[in-house]
Amino acid sequence: MSMIRDLRAVVRPSSRVSLRKESGPYDTTRDPATTTAVVDCAVYRDGRRLPAEGGPLTPHEAMRLVRRDGGFVWIGLHEPNEAEFAGIAREFGLHPLAVEDAVQAHQRPKLERYDDSLFTVFKTVHYIDHDELSASSEVVETGEVMCFTGRDFFITVRHGGQGSLRALRHRLQDDPELLAKGPSAVLHAIADHVVDGYIAVADAVQDDIDEVETEVFSPGRKGTPRGTDAGRIYQLKREVLEFKRAVSPLLRPMQLLSERPVRLVDPDIQKYFRDVADHLARVQEQVIGFDELLNSILQANLAQASVAQNEDMRKITSWAAIIAVPTMVCGVYGMNFDYMPETHWRYGYPVILSVTVAICLGIHRTLKRNGWL
After folding, report:
1. Considering just the CA atoms, what is the radius of gyration of the chain in Å?
2. Which of 18, 45, 177, 268 could form a disulfide with 71 if both were Cys (CB 3.0 to 4.6 A apart)?
3. How many C-beta atoms surround the C-beta of residue 162 within 10 A?
4. The model's pTM
5. Which contacts of 108-111 are long-range, i.e. CB under 8 A and separated by 24 or more positions?
6. Mean residue pLDDT across the chain
7. Are 42 and 62 in contact (CB under 8 A)?
8. Average pLDDT over residues 211-226
């Protein structure tokens, strides 16, 4: 147990700020000029990376060293195609269904066991910074990390423009005691890294939701809520749903890794998956809360728009009622009959005007007192 007492400090950055930086655009990409999807390939024995003499190791050479002298090989790939991945699949005996999922991508987070290997799919999430949230703003960007865990190998396949594992690999290499636990230690480190990325994104999305909520309920003119564009709220809700699709399906696989004995997972490492599952459950609760809160905010914003429309209609109706009085009087006295009341009276014109103005003022005062104007 003492060999892994600093496990959380090794696989997690020291601050949440560094987490958000590392969950950003990948710093290790596949060089377009190269003909291979392999980003890194290394052999680890007793927790230490063996130096590659004569240039980078190929997966075949790395596996030959492992079979001869022990240890395990960790291969990292970025968006391989079927032909590029075929040789590695044959070398390590990967199941065709898992290989197809790893190449095609767009998979749901899951954990599957094939013969002597585990196939795990993680959705990585990156928060996209923006100066102002709009109806077309992209808030979260997702990628994928597929992991093949065997007795003496660990293979990662990344898809998308974020989720680099270079910094994580370096941190693990700085702790040989942890890497000596084998591929399951790498699997836990990646799971913990991905879930910590979820926590950082959830905090950032919370800020966006707070901003929208403040705008919806903050007072506008005359003390009434000013509301906001419903498109912004709906766009944020779509981004939260995408975040939810990355988080929710992963909870069950993490619980299985923490609760049930798995032959390929070291018992000392397995108990730490419980910590990952707990953090993931907390993020899931946050995301579900975000979804429900955005529903309430959207409904409140639509209700405010409806109330504002009703107020405008009441004002229009009030002014129409006031204008109806002079319109009616002018209509009556515009019929040009000889025997109309007060038409031949000297003071008839000013009296009719005065009465009309008095009625209009009375209606205006009544409507204003009742809140219609």
Report:
1. 34
2. 45
3. 20
4. 0.74
5. 108/245, 108/249, 109/246, 109/249, 109/250, 109/253, 110/249, 110/253, 111/252, 111/253, 111/256, 111/257
6. 81
7. yes
8. 68
